Protein 1
Amino acid sequence: MLKDVFVTEEEIAAQFAIAAQIKATIGSGKTAFISTFGCQQNEADSERLMGLCALMGYGKATELESADLIIFNTCAIREHAELKVLSKAGALRKLKEQNRGLITAVCGCMAEQSHRRDKFLNSYPYIDFIFGTDRLHLLPQMVANVLAGKKQQVYVSGLPHDKFGVIAEGLPVVRESGYKAWVSIMYGCNNFCTYCVVPHVRGRERSRRSADVLAEIEALVKAGYKDITLLGQNVNSYKGEYSFPELLARAADFDGEYWLRFMTSHPKDASRELVDVMAANPRIAPHFHLPMQSGDNRILRLMNRRYTREQYMEKAAYIKEKVEGIALSSDIICGYPTETEEEFDRTVDAVDKVGFDMLFTFVYSPRPGTPAAEMEQVDHKVKTDRFARLSALENKRAEELNARFLGKKLRVLSDGGVGGIFKGRTGHNKIISFTLPDGAEDSVAEAGKFVTVEVTNTAAYTLDGVMVKD
C-alpha cells in the first residue's frame, strides 16, 4: 500500500480558487463535454471531472459539437478501445477550426502510456493538454494554463510505478444519474496479471479512508440514491480502517431503501467472510462478478492469476450455496498466448460446470509492455472461433439459468418507460422489461423507484414481466 498518497486540503483549496477565477473570466454560457471510454472507474472519474468543470463555470453540453471544453477520458485495456479514441480524436480538428476558443484534452489510461502520448502530441496537435489518471484534481490549473496561452502540455506524475498514484478527497461530483451512483473505494492494482496494463496506467493500490467512503455512501442514501456500486480494481484488496467485508457490512447498515453492489473481485482474495456478509445483508444485491479468465491451470499460471481452476470452482460453489438465487458473472479470455485446443476445452468445461448468468468473453488483445505480448500468439481465426464457441455455450446456459425466475416476483429498480413499456434491473443485475397493471399511472414506476414485477417470460439475457402491487 502506498503511503502519503492523499492530496492535501491546501492543494485542493488552491484548485478551487483557480476554478473560481476561471468562472469569473469566461462568463456564462460555456459548456463542457466529457466522452468516457472503458470501465466504471473511468465513469466515476468523469463525474468528478464534470464536477470540476461546473466549478469553473462550464455547464454540461448535450453533444460534442456544441462544447467549449472537450475531454476524452480514455481506456487502454484492449486495442479496440484505444483505436476508438484515436478515431474520435480526429474529429476534434474540424471542431477546433469552427471554434478557435475550444479547449481539448485527453486523460485516463492512454495518457499514461508514453507511445500513446507521443501519438497524440505528434498526430493531434490540436489537443491542448494530456493528463494522467492521478492528475484529475489539477484540472482547473490545466485549463487556466490553456487560457493563458500554453498549449500541448503534458501532466503525468513521472514517478516510477511503485510510487505512482494519489487520492484526492473532497472533489465535487456531477453524477450521470439521480438514483445510481459509483463510489470508488480504492485505486490501482498490485496483481500484475501478465496480460494487463492496469498497474502501469493506474498505479499501485491505494485505499480511501473508511470514514470517507462511508460518509459518501450515507450521503447518497440520504439523497435518495437506490443503487450504489463500490469500485476498485480489486475491492478485496481494500485496506482502509476496515477490511472490505466489514466496510460492505457497515455500508449496508444505513436507514433507507437501496442496493449495494461492488466490482471487481479477484478470485484469489474473495473470502468466505465476504460471501457470508452478502448472505446476511438483504441490501447487498445478489450478484457477484468473479473473473475466471481461464479454466486451465497452466494458462492461469501463465496469466499470473495465483489461483487454480479447482480453487475458483470451490469459491463459486460456496457463493451459490450461501447466497440464495445469486447471479454469478465472469470474464474469460479466448486464445491466450500458447493456449492449446485442449486447454481451451478445459475452460469451456469449467464455464459449463460453474453455470454463469452472464459471461464477458474477450478475444485476447496484446498490450504493449506486458509479458503476454512477447509470448507466442494464437492465430486470430483460432481465437475468434473459440470466442464463438464459448459464446454459444454461454447463451444456452444463460437461457437455462434465467428460466429459474419464471413466475417469480422480483424487486426491480425502474429506469422508466416509453410507450407503456418500462425497463429496469433486478438485484441480480438482470435487465427486465415490464408493463403496468390496468389502471396504474406511469408515475408508480418512474425512473428511480423500486417496484415488484412478476416474471412472465425469460430469455438468455432479458426478462419480461408485469408489475404487481406490493
Note: The chain has four domains: 9-160, 177-285, 290-404, 406-468.
Protein 2
Amino acid sequence: MNISKYISDKISEVQTGTFTTSVTKIAIISIAAGIAIMIVSFAILEGFRNEIRDKIFSFGSHLQVSKYDTNNSYEGAPISKNIGLTDSIPGIKKIQPFARKTAIIKTDDEVLGVVLKGVGRDYDLSAMQQNLQEGELIAYNDSASSMDVLLSQTIASKLRLKVGDETIFYFIQNPPRARKMKVKGIFNTGLEEFDEVFVIGDIGLIRELNNWPDSLAGGIEIVLTDFNQIDQVAEQVFDEMNYDLQLEKITDRHAQLFDWLKLLQKNVIIFLVLIVFVATFNMVSTVFIMIIERINMIGVLKAVGATDAQIRQIFVFRGLRLTLKGLFWGNLIGLGFCALQYYFEFIPLDPENYYMDRVPISWNFGMILALNVITLVLTMLAILIPAAMVARIKPVKAIKFD
C-alpha cells in the first residue's frame, strides 16, 4: 500500500467544512472552466476555419495552373487539359479543367454582369453541394452542352430569379452571342467576392462559344490530398510545368481571407495560454493553503520518520485528484456544449458579418486529448512548486505551529 496516497485519501475525507474545502472547489471550478473554454474555443475556431476554407475551395482548388498572361482578366488563353502531373507528383488527388467567360444576364427588369465558370461532369462539386440553398446541381448532357446554371442567392435576388426560371446570357465576344439558360440551383457561400460575381455552368458551353476542342480548357485546378502540403506540392508542380504556364496557390489568390484566419488563430492561442496560467496559478495557491493547514500533521509525520518525498507525494496526490475532477467536469461541459451546438445549432450568426448562419463546430479529438494532457502536465508541474516547501518545515516548529 502506498502510504502517501492513503493519507491523501484520508485528508480528502475529513476536510469538509474547512477553509481548504472552499479553496479546492475554486481550484476544481477554475480547471473545469479552463478546459471547457479551451475545448469550445478550439472546436469553434476549427469549425470556422474549415467552413471558410470549404467555401473558398468550392470556387477554386488548392492549386491553379493557367496560361501566363500579364492581363488580369477573368478570361485567359486556353491550355491543354492534359498536363501529366497526376502520376509523377505525390500529394495530388485530382486534376480538373475549368474555363471562365464573362457575360451579361438580362431579365425583363434587370441587367447584371457576371462571370460564368464552366466545369465538367468530372469536376468535384461536393463543396458546392453544401452551399446549395435551393434546387440541385447541373445536369450534363451526353450530346450537347448543358444550359443549366447555378446562381448565387445574391445574383438571384438582384435579378429576381428563382429555380426553374429561364434567362438570357449575353456573352461578351466578337461577335456577341446569346444563350437562354435555366436556373438549376441557387447557392450561398456568404463570401461576397464569389456570390456577387460567379455563376456555375457547363465548360462545354464555353468551349462551344470559344470554338475550342475538348482537349483545351481555360485552366487546370489541382486538388491535393492534404491542404497542409500545399507549399511542397506547389514547388514540385512548378518545377515540372511548361515555361509558358503560371501556378497560383489558393492561399495567394485569397491572401486576405487566409491571413485573417491565421490572425484569428493567434489571438485564440494567446487567450488559451492565459486560461491555462490562471488554472495552474489557482492550483498552486490551493496546494499552498493545504500545506499551511496541515503544518502540524507534517511535523508529526516527520517526527515519526516520514521522508520529505513521502510527504510531498501526499499533496501531489491531492492535487492530482483535484485536477482530474476539474478535467472530468470541464470535458463534460465543453463536449456537451459542442454537441448541443453541432446537432441543434441553437446559436445563430449574421451571415453578412460571419459568412455563415450559425456557430460551426469541428470535432478534433486529437486536439481535445492534447489540451487535456497539456493542462494535466502543467498543473502537476505547478504543484511541485508549493510541495517543495515541505523540505523547509522543521518538525519541532511544525508541531508547535498554531
Note: Residues 19-57 form the longest helix (39 residues).
Protein 3
Amino acid sequence: MIVFDLKCDRNHVFEAWFRDNATFEAQCKGREIECPVCGETKVEKAPMAPNIALSNEAHRAGSDKALEDTATAAKFLSTCRKIREEVEKNSDYVGPQFAEEARRIHYGEADKRSIYGEASDRDARDLHEEGVPIATIPWVPRTDS
C-alpha cells in the first residue's frame, strides 16, 4: 500500500491509499478519486512531508486508522448527499428568501409546506429565537455536478 497527499481542483488537500502508483494513476485518469470535502474528482498529487519509518505494528495501526478515517468521511458524505436528495425531492426551493418565507409559513400567512433555501447566520438565529422551526444541514455538492 502507498499513501499520497492529494489536492482537488478547489485546493482541498486530503490523503488517500492505493495499492501502487499505477492504481493511483488509473483511478485519477478515470476520475474515480473524489475529494472528501467537496466531491470534486479532478485531483492531483500534493507535496508530501517525508515518511518516517515506524515499527510494523505502529505502521499497521496507522494504516488501519487512515483507512477507517477515510471510510468514515465517505460514509458521512454519502449520508449528506442522501439528505440533500430527500430535501430537494420533498421541499420547495425558496432561495435567499428562506427566512422571509419561513416566517410567513410559521405565522399562517402562507400555506404550510416544506421549504429550503439560504439564510445568513443572523437570520437563522433570529428565526430560532422567534420559535420558527428550522434546521441547518450540511449542503454538499452532488456527485454528478
Note: Residues 56-90 form the longest helix (35 residues).
